[in-house]
Amino acid sequence: MIARYTLPEMAELFSDQHRYATWVRVEILATEAQVRLGHVPEDAVRDMRRAPVPLAQRIAEIEKDRDHEVLSFLAAYCENIPEASARWVHLGMTSYDLVDTALGHTLARATDLLSAAARRLRRTLVTRALEHFDTLMVGRTHGIHAEPTTFGHKLAGYAFAIDRSLTRLAAAREAVAVGTVSGSVGTYALIDPFVEQYVCQSLGLGIEPAPSQVVARDRHAQLVQAVAALGACVEQIALEMRLLQRTEVAEVEEQRAPAYQGSSAMPHKRNPTTSERLCGLARLLRGYATTALEDVALWHERDLAHQSVERVILPDSLAVAHFQATKAEELLAHLTVRPEAMRAALERTHGLIYSSAVLVDLLGDGTEREHAYRRAQAAANRTAATGTPFRDTLATEGVELREEPRPERFLVHHDVIRRRLEMLDELED
């Protein structure tokens, strides 16, 4: 995990010490279940609860010789448990009964953190979309002026994209919030299925229905893909904010600290660095999604090829996405919007953005479609070449306008989008 792109709450969740604390919790729960079954004395659980979580440094010290993290953890943990009770620790379990069950619990909590950040982002998008729902601006397709729209409409589209991402995250959370305590090849040969039921229920986890030795890795791939999809949605927002901050456009601007310096050589520079950073992080998330798919296929009941990969991509993908969503919310919450620049851009092409309305009017007057299109296009080409107002070049083509072109004509049904946005707004109440 890169500290620069990891917020404290996510860093703590994926720390070595937190992982070992979760392992201790799983071991205690499993032993509690064994006590209920009458297989282990009550004293064992009491002694296990009294023992501290072993320090990561101590486990690493033992692992230098054993080259096995779980066995090193168990050795360190049992150093502070009386021998008579330590013999019952990990009874009937295999390493990944511990590792995967704890991982399912951690991934569920990490997904909750990410979802909370995404909900805050959705909330801000809805708020600012409603604030600027009537703020006129030009819509662009292929980077070229198309027809009038509003800044609020643009933000509304992003709000719904984040909402869909939240749905995907919820499904992915359900997929990864599972555990297994089923023994070496998942047959429950040396452990009663009640132990698994007790442990997983206590941790709020589902159960892998047909375990091998590990939880199926398509679950983790689903999560990382959902995370990458959220990242791509954030990237779409950030990319648009970058484009709208270009000098030639200057319709929005990121908030910057008073001491901000955009260039070591050019004191005038005010760069869209936050938006650029958000776009870059999305590339990482897509890479993690591909890598997660590589982890799905394991040899037979399990191999170890996935483990080294997961140590990187699972904490990193969730941390990066959490950072990205959090910073995107801050970007939008403090974004300066310039309605006057947006309004000015509407007339930059001297009325060409109203060509579709002219075409519709000609068709309504009975002009054959190809002829109507060519007349409007000829006038548009003349305006583009000379800068003559579109209404004047239309007149040279013998086209009389029914009414003065204006942006509002294109927004007569705009309230249908507002109503849908207001329904999304109600989800936050």
The parts where pLDDT drops under 50 for at least 5 residues are none
CATH domain class of the largest domain: Mainly Alpha
Annotation field: number of helices:
17
Q: Under the CATH scheme, which architecture of the largest domain would be assigned?
A: Up-down Bundle
Q: Give the N-to-C terminal Cα separation.
A: 35 Å
Beta-strand share of residues: under 5%
Secondary-structure element series? HHHHHHHEEHEHEHEHHEHHHHH
Structural class: mainly alpha
Number of domains: 3
CATH fold descriptor of the largest domain: Fumarase C, Chain A, domain 2
pLDDT average, as an integer? 95
Report the radius of gyration as a whole number of Å.
Answer: 30 Å
- The order of strands across the largest sheet is 1-2
Provide an overview of this structure.
The chain is mostly helical. The protein folds into three domains: 1-91, Fumarase/aspartase (N-terminal domain) (Fumarase C, Chain B, domain 1); 94-255 and 268-346 and 412-429, Fumarase C, Chain A, domain 2; 352-404. It has 17 helices and six strands. The chain has helices at residues 8-13, 16-37, 42-50, 56-66, 69-78, 83-86, 95-131, 151-176, 193-203, 218-244, 273-294, 305-333, 339-346, 355-364, 369-386, 390-396, 415-426, and strands at 136-141, 144-150, 178-179, 206-207, 252-253, 336-337. A two-stranded antiparallel ribbon has the order 1-2. Strand 1 and strand 2 (144-150) form a beta hairpin. The model has no long low-confidence stretch (mean pLDDT 95). It catalyses: N(6)-(1,2-dicarboxyethyl)-AMP = fumarate + AMP; (2S)-2-[5-amino-1-(5-phospho-beta-D-ribosyl)imidazole-4-carboxamido]succinate = 5-amino-1-(5-phospho-beta-D-ribosyl)imidazole-4-carboxamide + fumarate. One of its GO terms (molecular function) is N6-(1,2-dicarboxyethyl)AMP AMP-lyase (fumarate-forming) activity. This is Adenylosuccinate lyase. Its EC number is 4.3.2.2. Belongs to the lyase 1 family. Adenylosuccinate lyase subfamily.
